[in-house]
Amino acid sequence: MTKPIVQIYEVQTTDEARAMIELGVDHIGSVITEKERRHDTALRDTVDLVRKMGAVSSLIPLYAEIDAVLDTLEFYRPHIVHFCDAIDGADSPAVDAAISLQKTVKKAFPDIDIMRAIPIGQSAAQGAAGILKMAARLEAVSDYFLTDTVIESADGNRADQPVAGFLGITGLTCDWAVAARLVEESRIPVILAGGISPKNAAEGIRKVRPFGVDSCTCTNARDVNGRPIRFRKDPARVKALVQATHAFETITGD
Questions:
Q1: % helix / strand / coil in the chain, to the nearest 5?
Q2: Which domains does the chain have, with CATH numbers?
Q3: What's the whole-model pTM score?
């Protein structure tokens, strides 16, 4: 196993990106929340700084309209574009649309890697075959997979997600057994996300053997009530996550 990387979202400013890289973070993730306000020069400065400091920039557009996506990539030129729309069903029109989008993006920007979030429930053993089939269809048009937790109701159906129509920021772990199968069956790197914190990162790496770990909610700053604050990182939590990942490397000798 190669050295696991650490990816941190949601980093939106140059000051925070610099601080994260100095703590040892490998991939710096940023988010564009509104298609209509996608040209953010301050965020572009953040992406540029990440590149200059020798880290990897990953950018999520919270929209999938092809013209807007292509315009976004032309404006920012990140290392990675990360698609996290909450697709469902291996043979669904949503997966067909995702494949079409990613083919178009790769043709227009062959130098930008594509990361595709794969939805996995907290207890997904019964749906594992469908998840793996979906991933198999997407693999040829993806450079990375990222597991992410999809919230489900008691009957196993999709529930409301924190950001409607998209995966992420649940603060909940996905089914690591299914994530491990995804790693085993994929020919591209898989990043483990969903509720990753300093307390469980090493265990997640040991059980899943991913390319790296991704954290957002569990490394955010907290308000006076202890709730995560979006777009604001807690350096102490990030440092602890990096140390936990490095501790795993030391223990295993990888």
A1: 40, 20, 35
A2: 5-249 (3.20.20.70)
A3: 0.91
